[in-house]
């Protein structure tokens, strides 16, 4: 079932163009219910957890977590998305060159402890911000080019602290009907990418077919959220 999308490529320039044209149907203007429903399992009794958001866009989830005393580091290719996050949430921010990431900028709100790096995700590493106690991967694994998934998984694993709890969202549909993104990522592939070093638990599964996604030609769309934790 992976074959129809195996060679599909969407360039960083195409993603930036989507933001420029406000063609961002993937953005949610409210906290993602998959995060809200499962936050206790991610936080797991800890206070001040450091969250990583790959391909963060301007997700309101980041402020929601920061308001609860957690800190957030995100990576996003599009500068417009990063600026809009702070501006739409009425947050002051600083802007500076990002040490350790050539050509990148980092935008920060120190009061809420949010740092967003504007760069190619694959130029980011644990040498920049260390490892994280949690990762919220909504719209990232399903957005990267399918041929990059092993490279992506290796990066995510390298960013996981020993107590990390990684919440990842994946989508199930018939990939012969829609070319993506978001791409079809079956549960089996999560296990092949992460199962060698992580325990993987399905926390929630939901019917995600909407008027918007029906227009893609889909007859079903299932959204699953899994919790990944490092094997001891």
Automatic annotation (TrEMBL):
HAMAP family named in the record: Thiopur_methtran
Main localization of the protein described in the UniProt heading: cytoplasm
PROSITE patterns given in the database record: SAM_MT_TPMT
Presence of keyword Methyltransferase: yes
Keyword line: Cytoplasm, Methyltransferase, S-adenosyl-L-methionine, Transferase
Catalytic activity field: S-adenosyl-L-methionine + a thiopurine = S-adenosyl-L-homocysteine + a thiopurine S-methylether
Transmembrane segments: none
Phosphoprotein recorded as keyword: no
GO biological process: methylation
EC number in record: 2.1.1.67
UniProt GO MF annotations: thiopurine S-methyltransferase activity
Name of the protein in question: thiopurine S-methyltransferase
Domain of life, source organism: Eukaryota
UniProt family annotation: Belongs to the class I-like SAM-binding methyltransferase superfamily. TPMT family.
CC terms in the record's Gene Ontology section: cytoplasm
A Pfam family it matches: TPMT
Class of this enzyme: transferase
Subcellular location as annotated: Cytoplasm
SUPFAM superfamilies: S-adenosyl-L-methionine-dependent methyltransferases
């Amino acid at each position: 079932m992976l074959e129809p999308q195996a060679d599909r490529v969407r360039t960083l320039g195409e993603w930036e163009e989507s933001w420029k044209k406000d063609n961002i149907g993937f953005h949610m203007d409210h906290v993602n219910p998959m995060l809200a429903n499962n936050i206790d399992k991610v936080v797991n009794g800890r206070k001040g957890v450091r969250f990583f958001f790959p391909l963060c866009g301007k997700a309101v989830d980041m402020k929601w977590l920061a308001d609860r005393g957690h800190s957030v580091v995100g990576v996003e290719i599009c500068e417009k998305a990063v600026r809009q996050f702070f501006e739409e949430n009425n947050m002051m921010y600083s802007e500076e060159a990002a040490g350790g990431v050539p050509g990148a900028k980092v935008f920060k709100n120190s009061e809420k402890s949010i740092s967003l790096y504007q760069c190619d995700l694959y130029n980011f590493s644990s040498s920049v911000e260390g490892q994280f106690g949690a990762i919220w991967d909504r719209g990232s694994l399903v957005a990267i080019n399918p041929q990059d998934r092993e490279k992506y998984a290796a990066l995510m694993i390298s960013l996981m602290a020993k107590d990390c709890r990684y919440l990842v969202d994946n989508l199930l549909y018939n990939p012969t009907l829609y070319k993506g993104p978001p791409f079809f990522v079956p549960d089996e592939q999560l296990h092949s990418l992460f199962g060698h070093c992580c325990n993987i638990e399905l926390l929630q599964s939901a019917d995600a077919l909407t008027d918007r996604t029906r227009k893609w030609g889909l007859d079903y769309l299932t959204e699953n959220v899994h919790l990944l934790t490092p094997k001891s």
